[in-house]
Structure to design on (242 residues):
């Protein structure tokens, strides 16, 4: 019996675990949260500069015109949107809305799709 | 029937609630600012600065950022509790996150009342 227990596969290899969609949204919620937390100091500095003077505002606008910063900004926007919609989904689940598996899957897809579509829309508008 | 009083300081419930209330506050502020940005395209410096000129807007913006920092505190704390096993390291990271968020809060107030 004890030997049998020892032979059980401990399956914690992150590269081999295949998450179901709601699990994917859940881990993206965490990752985007961490990313946004780490991005706070540069974003605060940007906010400060944007309000400082018309010259600084113009400099920010010019540097955001560069593809590298534009992509960085869009990545952060994507993280914000994933966190936003995954968070709304969580609030709904807290109220016991959409807790059945099929609905939970559907709302997971919806959260990912909305974040992606709005990021792409912002990308098109900014480019 | 077993009747057990749940003990403890209930700080788990308080944090859970804080995370959700702050989320709703941030979501509403996000929608409002997004609406402003969409109706002021391309954004000019004068409009941007005028948005944050009224005292009530500075207060609302500060509330948004304080919600953000409380929200981030609960999130970061949960993630550290889940993944960082060595107690001393986890404690150190908790303290670092707390201090960083406190500093951000002071910085934010400075930004909002110094332009």
């Amino acid at each position: 019996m004890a030997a049998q227990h020892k032979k059980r596969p401990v399956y914690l290899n992150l590269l081999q675990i295949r998450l179901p969609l709601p699990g994917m949204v859940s881990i993206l919620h965490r990752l985007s949260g961490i990313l946004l937390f780490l991005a706070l100091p540069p974003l605060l500095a940007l906010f400060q500069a944007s309000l400082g003077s018309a010259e600084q505002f113009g400099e920010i606008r010019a540097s955001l015109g560069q593809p590298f910063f534009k992509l960085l900004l869009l990545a952060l926007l994507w993280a914000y949107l994933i966190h936003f919609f995954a968070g709304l989904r969580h609030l709904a689940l807290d109220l016991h809305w959409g807790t059945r598996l099929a609905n939970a899957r559907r709302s997971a897809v919806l959260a990912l799709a909305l974040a992606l579509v709005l990021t792409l829309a912002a990308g098109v508008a900014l480019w | 029937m077993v009747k057990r009083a749940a003990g403890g300081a209930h700080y788990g419930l308080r944090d859970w609630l804080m995370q959700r209330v702050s989320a709703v506050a941030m979501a509403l502020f996000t929608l409002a600012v997004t609406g402003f940005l969409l109706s002021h395209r391309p954004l000019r410096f004068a409009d941007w600065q005028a948005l944050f000129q009224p005292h009530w807007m500075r207060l609302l913006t500060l509330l948004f950022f304080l919600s953000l920092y409380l929200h981030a505190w609960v999130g970061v704390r949960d993630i550290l509790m889940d993944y960082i096993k060595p107690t001393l390291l986890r404690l150190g990271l908790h303290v670092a996150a707390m201090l960083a968020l406190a500093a951000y809060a002071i910085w934010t107030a400075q930004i909002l009342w110094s332009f």
Remarks:
- Chain A has six helices and no strands.
- Residues 20-126 of chain A form a domain with the 3 helical TM bundles of succinate and fumarate reductases fold (CATH 1.20.1300.10).
- The CA atoms of residues 60 and 67 of chain A lie 13 Å apart.
- The interface with chain B takes residues 30, 33-34, 36-37, 40-41, 44, 47-48, 50-54, 57-58, 84, 87-88, 91, 94 of chain A (CB under 8 Å).
